[in-house]
Amino acid sequence: MTFAHRWLTPKLAVAPQLTINDVSAIKAAGFQSVICNRPDHEDGPSSGQPTQADIASALLAHGIRFAYHPVNSGGHSNDQALEMGRLMSELPTPMLAYCRSGNRCIGLISLAKSLGQDVPE
């Protein structure tokens, strides 16, 4: 399976759930950092979803920075969007944010921007 991602700006992309097998493609695509917006075990402990710690370990081994900012899929608060804005301003680009489908990340990024946070261009 190919690593699927969608560019929102030249320095910021979103993706659905990552796997350990995606890490080499993430590195090859030039990403310098990854933000995980999906809580561990969101679909239950037997869902097969890799934990953020497993993804983080694999990314860090490839020299890619990682931040864990879990947000429930039912919605996000201004505070969560402001934290997303802080992470986007501090982590190196290009950066990738992921959740179950990528849509939660887009919502957080959009809300962060509407609250005056900078989005990597």
Concise account of the structure shown:
The protein has helices at 23-28, 52-61, 78-90, 103-114; strands at 6-9, 12-15, 33-36, 65-68, 95-98. The N and C termini lie far apart (29 Å).
Task: From the structure above, extract its key features.
single chain; 121 residues; alpha/beta; Protein-Tyrosine Phosphatase, Chain A; 17% strand
Describe the structure.
It is globular and about 35 Å long. Helix 3 packs across helix 4. A hairpin with a 2-residue loop joins strand 1 and strand 2. It is of the alpha/beta class. The chain has one domain: Protein tyrosine phosphatase superfamily (Protein-Tyrosine Phosphatase, Chain A), CATH 3.90.190. The model has no long low-confidence stretch (mean pLDDT 94). It contains 4 helices and 5 strands, in the order ββαβαβαβα. The termini are far apart. The longest helix has 13 residues. It has a 5-stranded mixed sheet, sandwiched between helices.
Lay out the secondary structure.
Layout: E1 6-9, E2 12-15, H1 23-28, E3 33-36, H2 52-61, E4 65-68, H3 78-90, E5 95-98, H4 103-114
Parallel strand pairs: 2-5, 3-4, 3-5
Antiparallel strand pairs: 1-2
Q: What is the CATH architecture annotation?
A: Alpha-Beta Complex
N- to C-terminal distance: 29 Å
Counting H and I runs of at least 4 residues, what is the number of helices? 4
For the record, what CATH class applies?
Alpha Beta
Outline the low-pLDDT stretches. none
How many independent structural domains? Answer: 1
Q: What is the name of the CATH topology?
A: Protein-Tyrosine Phosphatase, Chain A
Strand order of the largest sheet: 1-2-5-3-4
Count of individual beta strands:
5
The overall average pLDDT, rounded, is 94
Q: What pattern of helices and strands is seen along the backbone?
A: EEHEHEHEH
Q: How big is the Rg?
A: 13 Å
Q: Strand percentage, roughly?
A: 15-25%
Instruction: Give the name of the CATH superfamily.
Output: Protein tyrosine phosphatase superfamily
As a percent range, the share of helical residues equals 25-40%
Q: Using the alpha-carbon principal axes, give the shape.
A: globular
Classification by helices and strands? alpha/beta
Describe the largest sheet. Answer: 5 strands, mixed
